[in-house]
Amino acid sequence: MLEILKSILFGIVEGITEWLPISSTGHMILLDQFVKLDVSRDFYSMFEVVIQLGAILAVVILYWSKIWPFHKKQTLTPNFNSQAKIWNYMDKDIFIMWVKIVIACIPAGVVGVLFNETFEKLFYKPIPVALALIVFGVAFIWVETVHKNKTPKINTINDLTYFTVIMIGFFQLIAAVFPGTSRSGATIVGALILGVSRTVAAEFTFFLAIPVMFGASFFKLYKFGFHFTGMETLILAIGMITAFITSIIVIKLLMNYIKKHDFKIFGWYRIVLGIIVILYFTLH
């Protein structure tokens, strides 16, 4: 029962921090310092990544109409006056959006596959995470201050150019290298610098997470193998379900929040948390 409660806690933290620009990986690393799941290190290394599948399913469900390019179209049947719905319509704008998403994923995907283990050994530690939290916290405050009252140049996902998405992809690469940066935080900061509106930056970040998280999760599953004990299966399933439910709530709250507010509050949160982490692990 205790391990199940821990799994629920990890799922809640994942569901909250995956979509807020405060670094889910960083928070999971820090949580693991204080709340240890009674599992092998190999399983935990897989668990902290695969649990993200629960979070990404929330995006798939909430934004299905915006990410699925094939739609039913009303057509007259040859011999009847009634209309039938058939899958014969592909939304060109959504298809192009997916092309842009794939392009944006290339930098982080290539570097992540080649050097993932090296990055984990070097940077998946409390102090590097804390420094990344602080640096990008400052970046959020700086970007929002500089762009205050400026009218965004890009106000819909369709307006994103190929140059813009490849640059966002390189910002995502920073998060792939340094845990604590935050994948959503890095891509949102990059998008804001490039003149993208907050709403579009957040939505594109959500959509960008779909192939990234599915790819990272299946890569980890493949490396771990598909042999789980009954308890391991239960822990993973509960963590994913909890992350899914939490993500549904957090995504809705975040999108409502950024319609009227900027991202500075997340910048200050990151800075304060980073300082606390440095003090704690320096003094202990």
TrEMBL record:
Membrane topology per record: Multi-pass membrane protein
Domain of life of the native organism: Bacteria
Catalysed reactions, as listed in the record: di-trans,octa-cis-undecaprenyl diphosphate + H2O = di-trans,octa-cis-undecaprenyl phosphate + phosphate + H(+)
EC number: 3.6.1.27
GO molecular function: undecaprenyl-diphosphatase activity
Membrane-crossing residue ranges in chain numbering: 43-64, 95-115, 127-147, 159-180, 200-222, 234-255, 267-283
Keyword RNA-binding assigned: no
Translocase found in the keyword field: no
Keywords: Antibiotic resistance, Cell membrane, Cell shape, Cell wall biogenesis/degradation, Hydrolase, Membrane, Peptidoglycan synthesis, Transmembrane, Transmembrane helix
Family that this chain belongs to: Belongs to the UppP family.
Role, per record: Catalyzes the dephosphorylation of undecaprenyl diphosphate (UPP). Confers resistance to bacitracin.
Additional note from the record: Bacitracin is thought to be involved in the inhibition of peptidoglycan synthesis by sequestering undecaprenyl diphosphate, thereby reducing the pool of lipid carrier available.
Name of this chain's protein: Undecaprenyl-diphosphatase
Organism field: Ligilactobacillus ceti DSM 22408
